[in-house]
Design a protein that fits this description.
This is Neutral zinc metallopeptidase. The chain has 301 residues and is α/β, with parallel strands linked by helices. The chain is built from eleven helices and six strands. Strands 1-2-6-5 form a four-stranded mixed beta sheet, with helices on one face. The protein has a two-stranded antiparallel sheet with strand order 3-4.
Length: 301
């Protein structure tokens, strides 16, 4: 969705760690042919326990700290017009909208929402879940209650995984990671660790629920307003919706495995199929009801 040009953004909700001068990180696993390793790297929402392995057997890459040459970039994200022009500003605006939506929505269920941290980085950074490189892609770390985004991933979402490049495809990624934060609040996130893989696993159900939560936000996104009462986002279009569904499909386990190895192995799924990811995103969008996102209460998610 496009942003309302006059909407006022709050860049203080995002921490910018870019600009360490280290260059792009090396992807572990030898590229797309790395099979299951690459699957873990590129899917949204990485298991925090494997982050050390993803950066080279637990080695500690230098962290790109806030205050480097790139630290002033986010401060330039002031309006919705900026969000329509720049990806980092679009991430910032989406974070603002999500932080406006979830407190009031969850309050209906007597659940208190606390804002997660949001970090934009490149190359490498340290997290509460261990060191991470750009290879990991977007993820949420419950240990430090922060969502991490490397803007370079959004190019790969299109060029490597075949998603459309529309704004809601990108906003969906941010909303999905915030969905994990909501799960952390509700107490469902740890089911991914207890049952980590397989088509009916807790891990798959956790990821599909986060997709549903992303769709739920989309349903209500155009009613979220900035501090002056101006909506952050313009009305949803059919193309916007197709962009989001394209992104959900692009990161399905079956699609990634087929591209990586030429075969599909449901027993190793951690996020669900393309069809499932689209289905649960659409469920959240069409119902706007968090009770309809109970991926744990159905026999087959």
């Amino acid at each position: 969705m496009s942003f309302n040009d006059g909407a006022q953004l709050d860049p203080s909700q995002v921490e910018d760690r870019r600009g360490g001068g280290m260059g792009r990180g090396t992807k572990i696993g030898g590229g797309i042919g790395g099979g299951i390793v690459v699957l873990l790297l590129v899917l949204l929402g990485v298991n925090p326990n494997v982050l050390g392995d993803l950066t080279g057997g637990g080695s500690q890459p230098p962290a790109v700290e806030s205050g480097g040459p790139g630290a002033g970039g986010i401060q330039e994200c002031q309006t919705g017009a900026d969000a329509d022009k720049r990806l980092d500003c679009r991430i910032t605006g989406t974070v603002n909208s999500l932080n406006a939506f979830w407190p009031d929505y969850l309050a209906q269920y007597n659940v208190q929402y606390s804002r997660p941290g949001t970090v934009i980085f490149d190359t490498a950074t340290n997290t509460g879940c261990g060191p991470a490189t750009t290879a990991v892609g977007p993820f949420y770390c419950p240990a430090d209650v922060k969502a991490y985004f490397d803007p370079g991933f959004f190019d790969e979402l299109v060029t490597r995984f075949g998603s459309s490049g529309g704004p809601l495809a990108q906003e969906y990624v941010v909303a999905h990671e915030f969905g994990h934060h909501v799960q952390n609040i509700l107490g469902t996130l740890d089911q991914a660790q207890q049952d980590p893989q397989g088509p009916q696993s807790g891990a798959v159900r956790v990821e599909l629920q986060a997709d549903c939560f992303a769709g739920l936000w989309v349903r209500h996104a155009t009613t979220q307003t900035d501090a002056s009462g101006r909506p952050f986002l313009d009305p949803l279009t059919e193309q916007d919706l197709q962009d989001a569904l394209s992104a959900a499909s692009a990161v399905g386990d079956d699609r990634i495995q087929q591209a990586a190895t030429g075969r599909v192995s449901p027993e190793s799924w951690t996020h669900g199929s393309s069809e499932q990811r689209q289905k649960w995103f659409y469920q959240g969008y069409t119902t706007g009801d968090i009770n309809k996102c109970d991926t744990f209460g159905v026999a087959t998610p």
